[in-house]
UniProtKB/TrEMBL annotation:
Stated name of the protein: Glycoside hydrolase domain protein
Length: 286
């Protein structure tokens, strides 16, 4: 199936998409009411507004440097995943989303990067835990949050993953333990964004890597992974032919192909792709 990811409520049922994803809370902190006719998305620990209003929410590394967007490699500001009031607020938003539509997508889940978080609360909680290894403790923090969220979602729980299928990379970077998360997640979504998609060998490598990482066969005609995954492509100002090519590569490996933030361009690509597949058909008179 093909889906659209959007901040515009009127696009979630736009043709020719099969399903719509609607951002209820994004990394800017912007909030919107959830929709009954879309899979509502919640940016969990990415939140520029909250981090700006309350710096105590922001994760810090061992040197006390915060995970904010004015630092190198951070596109937005983060909130520490152990902050109890913020977590409780997220779970309330997730409940509100689930009340409108049974399926909910959890976005921006995890610690910001390796080395986070060393705030006083995280240091204390790690010291009080049963873990000797800090990476194990971080992974438990994230898995526990996803489990709590999934308990509030009556339908499918979808979880966004960074586009890095290599073993242990997601765990070391963000505390995302895929093996543990599969007990609580019905489908993963992997955004693989580019401005051109002029070459796609790297896209295929990532897609094939996730198929293998999630337990699927290298042979794309074999059994799919037990926990399916979709890939989200960027559609803003991307050449239609390049977007078509990226779609063809992606759908070979992923369950669904989603298009982010330019419904019109994505729809144009799908319509042309459909027309191209019908080129050359011979319609014989009856």
């Amino acid at each position: 199936m093909y889906g659209v990811v959007t901040r515009n409520a009127d696009e979630v049922e736009m043709e020719p998409f099969d399903l719509g994803f609607y951002e209820v809370k994004d990394v800017t902190g912007r909030a919107a009411a959830p929709l009954p006719n879309a899979v509502n998305m919640v940016s969990c620990f990415g939140d520029n507004a909250a981090a700006s209003e309350n710096p105590e929410l922001v994760p810090v590394d061992e040197r006390g440097e915060p995970a904010t967007r004015d630092r190198e490699y951070f596109d937005w500001a983060y909130v520490c995943p152990t902050h109890p009031e913020y977590r409780e607020g997220l779970l309330e938003i997730i409940e509100d989303c689930a009340a409108e539509n049974d399926d909910v997508r959890l976005d921006d889940v995890g610690f910001p990067r390796e080395g986070f978080c060393h705030c006083e609360r995280c240091e204390r909680r790690f010291a009080e835990s049963d873990h000797d290894d800090w990476s194990d403790w971080r992974a438990d923090v994230i898995t526990e949050f996803v489990a709590e969220a999934a308990d509030r979602i009556p339908g499918r729980t979808l979880l966004t993953l960074y586009p890095d299928p290599y073993p242990d990379h997601l765990r070391e970077r963000a505390g995302l333990d895929i093996g543990a998360l599969t007990d609580h997640v019905d489908e993963f979504v992997v955004p693989v964004y580019d401005l051109h998609y002029a070459t796609t060998y790297w896209l295929e490598s990532i897609a094939r890597g996730f198929r293998s990482r999630l337990g699927g066969d290298y042979d794309v005609h074999g059994a799919p992974p037990e926990t399916p995954f979709s890939i989200e492509l960027y559609a803003v100002n991307v050449d239609v032919d390049d977007l078509i090519h990226a779609t063809e590569v992606t759908e070979t490996y992923a369950k669904d192909v989603l298009f982010g933030y330019d419904a019109s361009n994505a729809a144009a690509a799908l319509r042309r792709k459909d027309a191209d597949t019908r080129d050359g058909e011979v319609h014989r008179p009856e």
